[in-house]
């Protein structure tokens, strides 16, 4: 028997298998709290999303949303730093290429670890759709 979902009911999405799945979900959840951005997201087609056009809408979200996104990014950067440190500790003195290691984390701009900018959203979208 098929049951329709109730309006406003939170639908659980399956795990994407991405190592940054939790970060991705949190960013989406925060962005959807902004009415303007949610409307743009719902009306955008896949090409607008992939091209970065949707990322430019980030400049129009509320200050509260931007502050929360900044906080999420700082948490993700801290998580990635812990992963990098653990990786470096596990392969001490093996000539690890630190730049190659950082390239694994292309879902955010690690050169700006403090604020979530349109470039971060664009990089996250490109990483997910690659």
From TrEMBL:
UniProt keyword Glycosyltransferase present: no
- Primary location class: cytoplasm
Q: Which residues form a coiled coil?
A: none
Tell me the organism's taxonomic lineage: Eukaryota, Metazoa, Chordata, Craniata, Vertebrata
Superkingdom in the source lineage: Eukaryota
One matching Pfam family is NUCB1_N
Keywords, comma-separated and alphabetical: Cytoplasm, Golgi apparatus, Membrane, Phosphoprotein, Repeat, Secreted, Signal
For molecular function, the Gene Ontology terms on record are: calcium ion binding
Q: Which InterPro entries match?
A: NUCB1_N (IPR057576), Nucleobindin (IPR040250)
This chain's protein is named NUCB2 protein
Which residues does the UniProt record annotate as the domain NUCB1-like N-terminal?
Answer: 6-128
**PANTHER family with a match to the protein in the record:** NUCLEOBINDIN (PTHR19237), NUCLEOBINDIN-2 (PTHR19237:SF22)
- Cell location: Cytoplasm; Golgi apparatus; Membrane; Secreted
Gene Ontology CC entries for this record: endoplasmic reticulum-Golgi intermediate compartment; extracellular exosome; Golgi apparatus; membrane
